[in-house]
Specification:
CATH superfamily: Winged helix-like DNA-binding domain superfamily/Winged helix DNA-binding domain
Number of helices: 6
Structural class: mainly alpha
Number of strands: 3
Order of helices and strands: HHEHHEEHH
CATH topology: Arc Repressor Mutant, subunit A
Number of domains: 1
Strand order of the largest sheet: 1-3-2
Length: 145
């Protein structure tokens, strides 16, 4: 055997992802948001009125997953889904007044989470980390086709 279990970079990335997910999940729980739902909300707080397909592209999630999350967010009263008049297949997501208000509480939580994750890393280290993660994603995509 070439490596031990602990030596695989994929295992290290997975363990880090589990820690990150666990922490953000616990931070978002009081706000009735799952981490993936928060990603949609963050995009809408940044630019309201995105289509579900735009969200699919930005998050690299499948359409069914995004549609399900959007439906759940709508049931919670945070967003409203509206069919486009010029293309009935396209659905735009808009924040409700409650969703907009929710952002005032949740965005600071997300910003604090990012600060926790980046604590002690220099700007150069963050750029290098971003470059390396991008390279890993490219390797996976290249070999998954």
């Amino acid at each position: 055997m070439k490596f031990s279990f602990q030596d695989y970079i994929s295992i290290k990335i997975h363990k880090t992802d589990l820690l990150l997910t666990s922490l953000i999940k616990s931070r978002l729980e009081p706000y009735n948001l799952a981490p993936e739902q928060n990603l949609i909300m963050m995009l809408l707080w940044e630019k309201d009125g995105l289509t579900q397909n735009q969200i699919v592209e930005k998050l690299a999630k499948d359409k069914t997953n995004v549609a399900r999350m959007a439906s759940n967010l709508e049931k919670k009263g945070f967003i409203k889904r509206v069919h486009c008049t010029d293309d009935r297949r396209a659905v735009k997501l808009y924040l409700t007044p409650a969703g907009k208000e929710h952002g005032k509480k949740v965005v600071p939580v997300s910003e604090e989470f990012d600060e926790i994750v980046c604590d002690g890393l220099s700007k150069e280290e963050l750029q290098e980390l971003e470059r390396l993660l991008s390279k890993v994603r490219e390797n996976v995509l290249k070999n998954s086709q």
